[in-house]
Design brief:
globular, 204 residues, 82% helix, mainly alpha
Amino acid sequence: MFEASVILTFVLAAAAIVIVPGPTVSLIVANSLRSGASAGLANVAGTQVGLATMIVVVALGLDIVVAVMGEAFVVVKLLGAAYLVYLGIMLWRANGEIASRKGSRKSLAGYARQGFFVIWSNPKALLFYGAFIPQFVNPAYSTALQVATYGAIFMVVATVIDSAYAFTAGKAGSLLTRERVRVVERASGSLLIAGGIGLAFARR
C-alpha cells in the first residue's frame, strides 16, 4: 500500500511546506524568544492538536464537512482573522522584557491554545490538506487509512521543524537585549496583523 519512494516524496514535500515561515512559525518564534523554548513547544503542541483534527476531517470526508458547514467557514475565517490581529497587537504592546522560564510554565496551556486557534484561524489550511494529502492516496486501498497515515507523517515532520524553530529561538532569546526583543516583537506582531488582514479579505 505504501511505497518507499512515495513516502519519501511526501516527506520532502511536507518539509518544504512546513519550513516556510507563516503566522504559526511567527507565533512560535516570538513566544520562544520572550519566554523560552518551552513556550514555543507548547505552541507546537497546540498546532499539532489542531492539525490532527484537520486530518480527521479530511479522512472522514472534506466535501461532506464543507457542504454541511457552508457559510460557517466564513465566520470561522473572520474570527480567526480577528484573533491573529489581536495577537499581533499584543506583541506590539509588549515591553520587550523576556519572561522568566519559571513564569512561562504557568501558562503553557495558554500557549497551546494559541497554537490551536492560530492553525484553525485559516480554514484554507483545512482545504489545503484536503487537496495535498489525497494526491498521494492510492484508490485501490483504504482511503481513510492512507489519509490518516500520511496525516500522521505530516504531523511528525511539522513537529520536528516547528520544534527546531522553538529551540533555536529559545536559545537566541537568552542572548538578546531588551531592545532587540522589542524589534522581534514588532516584526512578529506585524506579520500576524498582516496575516489576519489578508485572511479577512481572502476569498474562500
